[in-house]
Predict the structure.
Amino acid sequence: MSNNRKLNVFLPLLFAIVLALGMYLGYKMPGAQSGSTVLFSRGGRSALQETMDLIKVKYVDTLKVDDLQQEAIDGLLTHLDPHSIYIPPTNLAEVNEDLEGNFEGIGVEFNITDDTVNVVAVLAGGPSEAAGVLTGDKILKVNDSLLVTGNGITSDKIRKLLRGPKGSEVKVTMLRRNKQMDIRIKRGVIPLYSVDASYLITPKIGYIKISKFAATTYQEFMDALRKLQRQGMEKLVIDLRQNPGGFLDAATRIADEVLDGNKLILYTKGKSYPRTDYKCEKPGLFEKGALAVLTDEGSASASEILAGAIQDWDRGLIIGRRTFGKGLVQEQFDLSNGGALRLTVARYYIPSGRSIQKSYSNGREAYDEDIMNRYTHGELLNKDSIKQADTIPYKTAKGRLVYGGGGITPDIFIPFDTSRFSAVLTDMYTRNTFSNFAYKYYNTHQDVLNRYKDASGFTRQFTVTPELYNDFLSYARKDSIHTERVTAKDETEIRDRIKTMLARQLYRTEGFYEVINAGDPLVKRAVTELEKAKE
């Protein structure tokens, strides 16, 4: 009873002390005597976040806060390396699709000519083929009211209309031989292949073209490798030209297939990331046959990992031109607004210990202009013009000198062929004259073109006749191309390109590379070197 009496006496006193202390601390808080209204609890928030909050609440005009935030993030990232980027919510799905190796849609390839959307290819086994869509059909409408012809139509708009969740249905109005028809297509999962071609260049030498390193690349590579080995392949060309990279895992797993033992493929390390080694883990499918890798200034990141590991272990020859020079590792972090931050978290180093990353100390603009500067300085034309960033060379396992700090320098240099881009040819390329002509020619000569069994047969047997060549020149003139400027060398290129684009129309990328490689100087040199090699 006495304890309760004491508690009743002291409780009011305790509350009074707490109240007085609270008033005193409140009086001492910043802004308490200034007359300003405290809108935000500052807590541990940064000045950047405080600024964004104040602009959002107090600024005189209404702003699009999402756009403002994106500009602020982009501005912040300009002070980092060139490969740390912000991906807005509207772009994230498309960016991820490219690396995941598939998307959900109807399974057609199209182009836009004369303000009309033309179906130039139908994916075998895809939703459109099942619905009866044919190459040569023209898309007039999507879902009744959406007209897709005219000046305002773009490839991006068409893709957004045709893509959608697997199982959903889209009605497409097609024009086929001057007759309109409505076709209902149930969307499905559409693969995005990263191995563009695989075939035998000679009875013993195989060729595999890898366009990027996606989630499905390793399995595609293994399927191609097994197919070629069944056909008798003993030596291999891997083409990494214009391959911008992608998933690190895809590159290391492919490296494991061509390197033996438990060799180091690369290691990564960063301020918050301790060194991590990536080594061969199992017997590979192609550890012994002679190997050549084709590279150029567009080969970057994961491409450079694969080429660099092969070079450092003296496993094969690198043929072509110096690679891009990207040796930074990005990790993607999802953001609350639905976008993502792809942030550089480490650098990677290939087995000799060299970093491939070129300098970005002069800012992003200088970094982005590096390839053009290489051309201006003559590096794409002359090996002696290559500027090595490292003053100290590295040694491979067999003692060869190699250099880092700016990409992979090839063992055998092949210059860029500038003669292929005369003024008249450049006009034809920029206006898609070759591909548009091939599409129209295919639609009117299917009976002739479908006689060829496969891409190999087409490559060996098809020739561009004088009649076909003149038909192309007539088409080009209608496309405002000044054909009177065509030289004898231009004619050779035009004939080769007509055949190449017809092969692509018939056999997609497989046909394209099989035909174009027949005259490619890098491929020819690779074949010459591999034919001389014992392993």
Q: What stands out?
A: The chain has three domains: 103-191, 195-416, 419-524. The first helix runs from residue 2 to 28. The longest strand covers residues 340-349.
